[in-house]
Structures are given as C-alpha cells and as structure tokens.
C-alpha cells in the first residue's frame, strides 16, 4: 500500500478492488490489508465499510497513522474511480487499541487474525523456530 518512500500511490493498488462486486472495494463489508513493517513485523489495517471506520492492529503497539491515512485515501480514490459519493469527514480512523489487540512479548511470536461474521478476532500464539 505504501511504496518504499512511505507514500501512498493509487497506481500501486488500483487493482485491489477489481474482484469485488461491481469491481468496487466500497461494495465490500470489509477491506483487510496486511502491512509489513521492516523485514519481520506484520500488522493489519481494516476498513469496516458500513460503519465507515478504519482500524489499525499491531501486536507491538504501533499507532499506524500513515496506514490509516493511506487506506482512507485508497477508499476515496476508489469512490472517485467509480463515481461514488465519498466524504472523508464521515470516516472514523482508529489507532491501534492496545487493550483489545494482544501484544507480543518477543519477536518469536505472532498474532493471528481470524475473520468472524461479527468482526475480527485476535489470537496470540508463540511460534518457535
């Protein structure tokens, strides 16, 4: 989603929505994007389309502001591409909630994210190698 200089460019992600109903990501319930930070750490950002909420999840506690802004911009660009009304001010951007996202205690573990019908479910497991 973000290029190497940490900037968002629609040209890098414009194909994301092509397999969605009507070819428009805004017609989905959720848009879930895994984000790789550095060489080892993965986070996740999710747009809850009906609720007009974008939330960032990070098991190391990062806030994810640039990812929140980038996904909001992507949704706005999708709306423009499909001539769909879009008001940025209606969207709620939620930084990582350390109380509801399991936190990793070391770099050997990972957090898994499972999609349930009512939202996202987090589970923390350790993997040793």
Topology:
Blueprint: H1 10-13, E1 30-37, E2 41-48, E3 53-57, H2 65-81, E4 92-94, E5 109-116, E6 119-126
Parallel strand pairs: 3-4
Antiparallel strand pairs: 1-2, 2-3, 5-6
Structural write-up:
The protein has two helices and six strands; from the N terminus they run αβββαβββ. The protein has 129 residues and is of the alpha+beta class. The protein has one domain: Adenoviral Proteinase, Chain, CATH 3.40.395.10. A four-stranded mixed β-sheet has the order 1-2-3-4, with helices on one face.
**Count of alpha/pi helices:** 2
Report on the biggest sheet: 4 strands, mixed
Rg, alpha carbons: 15 Å
Question: What structural class should be given to the helix and strand makeup?
Answer: alpha+beta
Q: What does the average pLDDT come to? A: 78
pLDDT < 50 runs, ≥5 residues: 113-118, 121-129
For this structure, the CATH topology is: Adenoviral Proteinase, Chain
The CATH homologous superfamily is called Adenoviral Proteinase, Chain A
The structural domain count equals 1
Strands of the largest sheet, in order across it? 1-2-3-4
SSE arrangement, N to C: HEEEHEEE
Give me the CATH architecture, please.
3-Layer(aba) Sandwich
């Amino acid at each position: 989603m973000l290029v190497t200089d940490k900037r968002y460019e629609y040209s890098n992600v414009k194909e994301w929505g092509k397999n969605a109903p009507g070819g428009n990501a805004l017609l989905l319930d959720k848009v879930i994007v895994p984000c790789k930070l550095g060489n080892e750490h993965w986070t996740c950002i999710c747009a809850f389309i009906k609720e007009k909420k974008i939330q960032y999840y990070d098991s190391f506690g990062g806030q994810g502001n640039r990812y929140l802004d980038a996904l909001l911009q992507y949704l706005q660009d999708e709306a423009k591409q499909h001539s769909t009304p879009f008001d940025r001010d209606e969207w709620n951007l939620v930084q990582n909630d350390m109380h509801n996202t399991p936190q990793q205690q070391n770099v050997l573990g990972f957090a898994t994210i499972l999609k349930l019908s009512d939202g996202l479910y987090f589970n923390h497991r350790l993997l040793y190698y």
